[in-house]
Amino acid sequence: MLSQKPTVLIVDDMPENIDVLRGILKQSYKLKIATDGENALKIAKGQQKPDIILLDIMMPGMDGYEVCQKLKQNPATQTIPVIFITAKTATEDEQQGFELGAVDYILKPFNSVIVETRVRAQLAVSAETKKLQQDNINLKNKIAGGVQDFSEEQLRQLADAGESDTVEFKSTLRCNLHTGKADKKMENACLKTIAAFLNCTGGVLLVGVDDDGNALGLSNDNFINEDKQLLHFNNLVKSHLGVEYSQFIRAGMVTLNDEKILLIQTLASPSPVFFSRDNEEIFYIRAGNATQQLKPSEILAYVEQHAK
To answer: Where in the chain is the domain with CATH 3.30.950.30?
Structure first.
């Protein structure tokens, strides 16, 4: 079966420039055309996103710099490589383009060999970047997905390394250490982290460990036994995240520095996960070593980007 041709979006307000680029690229690529910045952004955010964008700088209305800036600010389009096509040769013009996120420049008048070479090179770089990102996701899923049992030494190393985009610590599952009483805010904090892991690349949550990675144990939660604590956790997941996502979560009691803690390993979910409680549905992701809530307008862009 023939592989699908990469899609190139050409953005230029001059028909003659579009005709020249079309003649150079039509044999090797599927082409999309926009003659202004507004249409370029619509096409870039569409269901069938371009693999690369050739973007003219000097256009009426929204110029190429502004278009590039908007592309890079939108999570749904920020990874699409942009090559500026321009007659501008000043160093400061190139610097401005690179600062906005462009990956290369092609000067007018067009040289067919240069156009083909630079488009092919940047597509290769983009493909390799995507492959590395997917490999990283696969590796994180292997670590965080319940496919292995952590030894106590591995858990100690995990705790010593500190929190990250795929590792977080919570002191308790339900007890507020300031009041000494059960508090749903503690439960919510754990569930929000798990939802964020599910919406990203998976992760590991250690419950019974303080922010510095010290094992506190789970006695503060005052469960009768370990089975009751696991049952409570599983019920929380089913009630507030959804029973269908239980298959992507593995939880179990383990020992860390002579203390019993709850180890929760989470895979990346194939579909968006919302934390639901008190008649609210909230979407969380990981941002560095923190859990971040997304606004409704941000959720669509995020989901669309990760569905690619």
So the answer is: 147-306
Tokens of 302: 């995020």
- Farthest-apart Cα atoms in the chain, separation: 78
Q: In sequence order, which residues have a C-beta less than 8 Å from that of residue 181 and are 6 or more positions away?
A: 175
**Sign of the torsion formed by the C-alpha atoms of 20, 21, 23 and 24:** positive
Q: Domain 7-139: state its class.
A: alpha beta
What pLDDT sits at residue 75?
Answer: 83
Name the CATH topology of 147-306.
3.30.950
Provide the angle, in degrees to the nearest 10, between the axes of the packed helices 64-73 and 91-100.
20
Peptide bond into 50 cis (omega under 30): no
Query: Any alpha helices (H) in the chain, and if so which ranges?
Result: 15-25, 37-44, 64-73, 91-100, 112-144, 152-161, 184-199, 226-237, 296-306
- Closest by CA to 170, choosing from 42, 262, 249, 78, is 262
Decide: 202 and 266 in contact? Cβ < 8 Å.
Answer: yes
Cβ burial, residue 286 (10 Å; 0-12/13-18/19+): buried
How far apart CA 81 and CA 85 sit, in angstroms, is 13
Distance CA 70, CA 37 (A): 10
**Stretch(es) of the chain classified as CATH 3.40.50.2300:** 7-139
* pTM, rounded to two decimals: 0.54
Q: What are phi and psi of 252, to 5 degrees?
A: -165, 160
User: Is 175:181 a contact under the CB 8 Å cutoff?
Assistant: yes
Q: What is the pLDDT of residues 117-162, one digit of tens each?
A: 999 999 999 888 877 776 666 655 555 444 467 888 989 999 999 9
Spatial separation of the C-alpha atoms in residues 195 and 268, rounded to whole Å: 10
Condensed to tens digits (0 to 9), the pLDDT of residues 35-83 reads 999 999 999 998 789 999 999 999 999 999 999 999 999 888 999 999 9
Report the distance separating Cα 45 and Cα 71, nearest Å: 9
